[in-house]
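User: Structure tokens for this complex, please. No commentary.
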Amino acid sequence: MSEKKPLRISKIVIDRDLCIGAASCVTIAPGVFQMDEENKAILVDLRGNDAETTLLAAESCPTKAIFLYDEDGKQVYPYT
Amino acid sequence: MIADYLIIGAGIAGTTAAETIRGRDAGGTIVLVGDEPHPLYSRVLMPHVVRGRVGEANMFLKKPTWYGEKGIEYLSGVAVARVDAARKVCGLSDGREISYGKLLIATGGRPRRLDCPGADDAGLLQLQTVEDARELAAINGGSALVIGGGFIAMEFALSFAHKKIPVTVAPRGDGFWGRVLGERARAMIAAKLGSNGVMLRSNSSLSGFSGRRGDIRATFRDGGAHDCTVVGSGIGIEPNVGFLKGSGVPVNLGVVTDEFLASSAPGVYAAGDVAEFFDLISADRHILGNWTNALLHGKTAGANMAGERTAYKALTSYSINCFDLPIAFLGAVESGFERLERRYDDAVLHCYLREGRVVGAAAVGKFHEREAAVGLITPRTLLDAARRAAFADARLPLARIIT
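Assistant:
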């Protein structure tokens, strides 16, 4: 079995139109995400939490508003 | 049939619990029972689907193949009819019996039904399932009436408005969230609805319906009537606990658990909208019905079922955008709590006190002091007279109260 490549996240995009402010991302990865005054998620620090936690935060979003990309620009989440 | 772990309810709480258990116990048998014939989907995404913002396929959070890949036996389209906690056995709606080692009840809630004459014939819309979303998405033209004054009523109103269908909302109280929001916050919401063509018929006590979908008359106890072609019902949900009658699992409003999400019945846990859990943040027992709570409940309950002993502690919120007006509830927001108000030029922030301590907040208009509100709620800050005065004075940053 080949060694699983460590998860690297190089870019995070939040679709503000999809975000409804459930704030699950902030609850799970507060170092990466915060809410702005319109109660929408914003990116504060790409490396504010470890990559696994950031992935969990993205997966927790009930509107799939968080898009993660790796170093090659490939979409890591939502799974395609 | 025997399962080391039996999970009833395949929504976000139950599915997350199954996934969490599998991460800690590679070999245990996991059976997940859900009464809907679908893989996991996001109810929160349904309004986006109804309004055509995303396709229906986007609602699904797991592929049908995911369950098998994880070694989770998913019995979909099946309900649990009864539980015998003394024998550790569940009976399914299809007649099968499953013996369990650990049991998770994650059955969520069902929309409360309007109990008035003519309601069945009027063909009321609900908004909980994929099927409900499809039904609402397919409606065009006519005029709509929405019964209720909370989140689902608001979703109905926004969906009809998006479809350019004239809509009137009839809450029981004065405006939206009449029992928990102050007058100014409710007025802001009413104004936003009004400027977008949504009519509000406050203090409406429904007496009944006549007619069928396409030609419905709703009548009210004040003698008034409202004619429309379709009615959306959003009057809250009630926990799915009926099947637990006589089971030996303790039920009050929901399944009663401690902060570990364990009930007093051996090996029986609860998670999500059905769990009446001891909340370490508000220091009381209650049900919280929001996505993040259900997801994190699933993680904690799953971990504890697999042998850990982790207390649940999370501050979660429920939000909506009323057109471009954000509305958010954070933590415990209940009608019996004392409410304080902080007024900004274009927004209102409430905090809710239980025994003088901050346990929840609600924001209408903007929520720029969210972090400070979290800072007040998390340690259950006691607000004395000076702090109450400081909360009411929006000229000073809210964060100052904490220090």
